[in-house]
Each structure stands twice: as structure tokens, then as C-alpha cells.
Design brief:
By secondary structure, this protein is mainly α. The chain is built from five helices and no strands.
């Protein structure tokens, strides 16, 4: 008897996870969501730690009677306002890329029209930028 024939009926422990009803097809989306969540948590922790260190520095300076520089008392400058022009152009470029990608792979007919959604969002952002510019008198 061939000793390798005994392995033909062996049950692999991960074989149930690979099929269409297993967990393997979900691993990539779940990993992407977990990575996004981890980035969000890391950014929040970093922001809280910077704030805590700043408060600790202020406390120590006050305990020692040191004068506090005005830069230290001010909050960190906020990020500049949202730029709808840039966001709109990026969204349009992403939409065109998605359209071309789905048109090239052609898994299902009509799938490429999903790329129109980001294009329309980009057009709406550009319209919003133009309206705000006209109302506010901003010349940027």
C-alpha cells in the first residue's frame, strides 16, 4: 500500500474557512477596516498624549514660578479650512480611475458606472467651492 494514499482522506483544519461560505473571503475587508480603526485610535491617542504633556509642562512651570510664554498658553493652530476645490478634483480623478478600472476588468456589464458616483460628488464639491467663492468674495 502506498503511504501517501492515507493522506487523501485527511481533513485539513483550515479547509472549512476557505470556501465561499467561510471567513477567508471576508478577511481582506475586515483587515482594511481594522487598519483604518487602528489609525484612528493611534491618532486620537497621539493627540491626547500631546495635550497631556502640554498640560504637564504648564503645571511644572507654574509650580516653579516660571513665566509662561504666550505660545504655550494658546491652543495648537487648527488645520486650515477645508478646500472643496482640491477635494472635488481628487474625487473626480478617483471616479474616472474607478470607471476605467471596472471597464477594463469587465466582470459584470455596467459595473463601470459605479465610478460615476465619486465624479458626481467631485462636481458637487466644485460647485460648492464656486458658490462659496462668489458669496464670500474670496479670490483664491
Amino acid at each position: 500500500m502506498n503511504p501517501f494514499l492515507a493522506f487523501q482522506s485527511a481533513h485539513l483544519p483550515l479547509a472549512d474557512l476557505v470556501g465561499p461560505y467561510g471567513i477567508m473571503p471576508l478577511l481582506i475587508p475586515l483587515a482594511g477596516m481594522a487598519l483604518g480603526l487602528a489609525g484612528l485610535i493611534a491618532g486620537t491617542i497621539e493627540k491626547l498624549q500631546k495635550r497631556r504633556l502640554r498640560h504637564e509642562l504648564l503645571r511644572v512651570a507654574l509650580e516653579k514660578g516660571q513665566p509662561l510664554p504666550p505660545e504655550l498658553l494658546e491652543e495648537a493652530p487648527r488645520r486650515r479650512s477645508r478646500d472643496d476645490r482640491r477635494s472635488g478634483l481628487v474625487s473626480i480623478a478617483v471616479g474616472v480611475g474607478v470607471y476605467l478600472l471596472f471597464r477594463a476588468i469587465a466582470v459584470w456589464p455596467g459595473l463601470q458606472w459605479i465610478g460615476v458616483v465619486p465624479v458626481l460628488i467631485g462636481v458637487a464639491l466644485l460647485l460648492n467651492w464656486a458658490i462659496e467663492r462668489r458669496e464670500g468674495g474670496d479670490r483664491s
